[in-house]
Specification:
This protein is α/β, with parallel strands linked by helices. It folds into three domains: 129 residues, no CATH class; 31 residues, no CATH class; 112 residues, no CATH class. The chain is built from ten helices and eight strands. Strand 7 and strand 8 form a beta hairpin. The radius of gyration is 32 Å and the shape is elongated. About 2% of the residues have low confidence.
């Protein structure tokens, strides 16, 4: 027998707060439609109730004052959530690891709108429709406007201010700041990689010019102009960067999928990022190919033909 908080919620709750299921499945729409007696439990609750056995398929009983003992089948276990370290989830001071979740329709059918809080052997009863609800926005800039809209909607629905709208703006700003730092770090790494790759292309082309000095002399002797030599080596440089860019796109896409499948981090690859990456690879090849191409074009045909 353990003290724990039981909440009736909709299946979208876990998606909105980005809470992942470690084992089993989350609550589903069919559970909501059928008012099924199933539950998803937090990891701390699992450790206390089922320390040495598989909780999936087991039954837990919710003993609530003024209501009969109710059995629930465990269908899922949440991943352990560090609320202090994940501000974007907006969980505030809740310890979701020690909570139990049942379908909202089940809670409404069995318990109605009576909220009971048990503390130190006593309990408090209050009549509520919903104890909490969460609103998700697409951009951090929309947090304040949406929160004002929520306040206005609640003020029209409530005769008195018996509600609180919490906006974890500081946590959101902290998360956004951390995101910007990661983006800057990744940008610096990408810039250094481009510089190293460009220098590599330039060195390869300079070595190619040195090895093909006689070929350049023959072409110049047969009537090729400097612009033809420049064009030849620029095309070769672009070919190198094109092949490298294509390999990089394939490896990057495969790496993103591996990260998503193995680590569980969501990754999104947009078409415009692929086009920009490929265009940047071509630009690097063109820029770092200019110097070797110019060196090749400046070679004296007579001196070039003398080299063996």
């Amino acid at each position: 027998r353990l003290p724990a908080a039981a909440f009736g919620t909709e299946p979208a709750f876990f998606d909105i707060l980005h809470i992942k299921i470690a084992r089993g499945r989350p609550l589903q729409l069919v559970d909501e439609a059928e008012a099924a007696k199933v539950c998803v439990i937090g990891d701390e609750l699992r450790a206390k109730l089922f320390a040495h056995e598989d909780p999936l398929g087991e039954t837990v009983y919710v003993d609530r004052p003024a209501t009969p003992l109710t059995p629930y089948k465990v269908v899922g276990v949440l991943e352990r959530t560090q609320t202090a370290g994940q501000p974007a989830k907006g969980l505030g001071e809740r310890d979701i690891n020690s909570e139990l979740f049942i379908p909202l329709s089940t809670a409404d059918r069995l318990y109605g709108d009576l909220l009971i809080r048990v503390t130190s052997g006593s309990y408090e009863r209050s009549q509520v429709t919903f104890s909490d609800f969460y609103v998700q926005v697409d951009e951090i800039d929309n947090v304040i406007p949406v929160s004002e809209m929520v306040r206005q909607a609640l003020s029209h629905l409530h005769d008195k201010a018996d509600y609180t709208v919490k906006v974890p703006l500081e946590r959101l700003r902290l998360a956004e700041s951390e995101k910007r730092r990661r983006q800057i770090t990744m940008g610096c790494i990408a810039g250094i990689s481009l510089l190293v790759g460009g220098i590599g292309i330039m060195n390869i082309m300079l070595a190619t010019v040195t090895e093909r000095t006689r070929e350049i002399g023959i072409r110049r002797a047969l009537g090729a102009k400097r612009r033809h030599i420049v064009m030849q080596f620029l095309i070769e440089s672009l070919m190198l960067s094109t092949v490298g860019g294509m390999i990089g796109i394939v490896c990057g896409s495969a790496g993103a999928h591996l990260i998503t499948n193995w680590v569980g981090w969501p990754t999104v690859i947009h078409n415009w990022t692929i086009l920009c990456s490929f265009g940047l690879a071509l630009a690097v090849g063109l820029f770092f190919g200019i110097y070797p191409a110019a060196n090749a074009a400046r070679l004296d045909p007579i001196e070039a033909l003398r080299q063996t």
